[in-house]
Amino acid sequence: MKTIAIIMLALMFSMNLAAQQTKNPPKTKEQKAAEKEVKFQGMHNLLKDQSFILEADYLGNGFDRRPVVAALNFVMVDSTATVVQTGNNFGVGYNGVGGLTVEGKVSKYTIVKDKKHRSLTVTWNMSSTLGFYTICMNVSPSGRATATLTGNTSGRLVYDGWLVPASESRTYTGSKL
Fold it and tell me: How high is the pLDDT of residue 31?
């Protein structure tokens, strides 16, 4: 009786393994290319709608980068408005979240598609109470993005993270200047 039960269990286990192996056949080259194209078009539409947030995992100056809290460090575009914020969990700062929050107006918003490398570059100008800035952001089809902020001074600030629709963002905006 025990041997029959063991044989039945072994048969059911092997059938389960065989069923799992047939559920996810390997993707063909065409399927992978089609998925990449869908993601590329999705990112293009997100940028075209001008309602997105780059939630930064890292901040830097181009040479040195440090891990940061994505909910407090971001670049946002919402129609004609843009917000750039830095923050941390430990300080108070000008914005109440350990950093600086600058709000401004968007002008000269342009999107360039690189179909060969499946990447997008979006550039816009930001005019705020602190001055004028240029933001240049490179976006991959997966949603990984790097935005470089340059402005009145010779320095620059680089945000590196994930691009998400504004409606799905988990960011917290501090007090604006």
Answer: 86
Contacts of 70 (CB under 8 A, 6+ apart): 55, 56, 57, 161, 162, 170, 171
88 belongs to a structural domain: yes
Buried b (16+ CB within 10 A) or exposed e, 115-139: eeebbbebbbbbebeeeebebbbbb
Asked if residue 165 has pLDDT above 70, the reply is yes
Domain of residue 90, CATH code: 2.40.128.410
Q: Rounded to an integer, what distance in angstroms lies between the CA atom of residue 55 and that of residue 68?
A: 10
What is the phi/psi pair of residue 66, to 5°?
-125, 145
Cα separations (Å) of 41 from 2, 89, 141?
Answer: 58, 36, 8
The lowest-confidence range among 2-16, 91-105, 160-174 is: 2-16
- Token reading at 79: 């129609």
How many Å from the N-terminal Cα to the C-terminal Cα in the chain?
A: 79
- How many structural domains are present in the chain? 1
Whole-number pLDDT of residue 14: 61
Structural domain range at position 73? 39-168
Tokens of 151: 């402005």
Q: Is residue 177 part of a domain?
A: no
Structural domain includes residue 95:
yes
Domain assignment of residue 17, yes or no:
no
